[in-house]
Amino acid sequence: MPDMKQGLVKKTTLTPAEIAAIEQLIDICNTHDKLLMRIEPTMLRERPGNMVNDFLYYEDGQLVGYLAADSWGKKDKEITGMVHPAYRRRGIGRALFEAAKEEYRQQGVQMLIFICEHSSQSGRAFLATTGAEHAYSEHYMVLGTFKERGQVKEGLEMRLATESDIPAITTILATDTGNVEEVKAWVTDAMKDPRQHTYFAALHGRPLGCVRLHFMEKATGIYGFEVRMGYRGLGYGRQMLEQLISIARAESDRPIMLEVLTDNTNAIGLYHSVGFEIRTTYDYYELPL
């Protein structure tokens, strides 16, 4: 047919038909490779339209390759890509990679961060040819049987955060990175999103920690979970986490998930003790532009 799509197509927004084709390709690749690639449908539907974030590759009108970048990255872009199992080893993955690299170099992006499941041998082999280097890995954990202790720490209060809490939350989250301005912008944006609820914890009225619930289509995510230095390992984090799980369950019946660095043994121990189970592990590869 004259209008049949062929080859590489770059998009700033996606049509419902394109999103449906992308979701079908994700399901095919996940089933074939026994993976858990996570591309949030809401992100695809709500592309801002001011930058190319989707790279689609067609053969005779069929979507056989796809590369997605996050919508919020300015200096960095997190990227996930895939090729239909029946169309691999034809240069499609390379074409998508090169198109994304050139597009974001022109846009002034400084770093591409590729996400690949550790169990994906083909994905890891491809990334080894790109010049990207492994930076860190995260376990993807999902709550199984909730092991609630219900212990109450005297003086601990956790509530929905307000704008007045942003400076304290920024200080808590920036302790490990030191990047105050970027953290402040990230916290401010998250608090404007109605699907994300940020919680602030205080101990006897003094800032103790923070955590955020992200209500996504297929899961409820726990992000930005932090307890102030000097108060870790004392049971405050567990009480915050138990309260948060109760809140999440009251608002949604979707699975509750979180991600944690594979070398953060203390946090992993806490999550296991509450009932979280490792479902897969994601490797992150960085490529400076």
Q: What's this model, at a glance?
A:
This protein has 289 residues and is α+β, with helices and mostly antiparallel strands. It has 8 helices and 12 strands. Strand 9 (206-215) and strand 10 (220-227) form a beta hairpin.
Q: What do these coordinates show?
A:
This protein has helices at about 15-35, 40-45, 90-105, 120-125, 165-175, 180-190, 235-250, 265-275, and strands at about 5-10, 55-60, 60-70, 75-85, 110-115, 135-145, 155-160, 195-205, 205-215, 220-225, 255-260, 275-289. It is of the alpha+beta class. The chain has a 12-stranded mixed β-sheet with strand order 1-2-3-4-5-12-6-11-10-9-8-7, sandwiched between helices. A hairpin with a 2-residue loop joins β8 (about 195-205) and β9 (about 205-215). The longest helix has 18 residues, at about 15-35. It is elongated. The mean pLDDT is about 95.
Shape: elongated
**CA-CA gap between termini:** 39 Å
Q: Averaged pLDDT, please?
A: 94
Q: What fraction of the residues are assigned to beta strands by DSSP?
A: 25-35%
Portion of residues in helices? 25-40%
Q: Enumerate the spans where pLDDT stays under 50 for 5 or more consecutive residues.
A: none
Radius of gyration: 20 Å
Assembly level: single chain
The H/E string reads EHHEEEHEHEEHHEEEHEHE
Largest β-sheet summary: 12 strands, mixed
Based on secondary structure, the structural category is: alpha+beta
Q: Helical stretch count?
A: 8
DSSP strand tally: 12
Placed side by side, the strands forming the largest sheet appear as 1-2-3-4-5-12-6-11-10-9-8-7
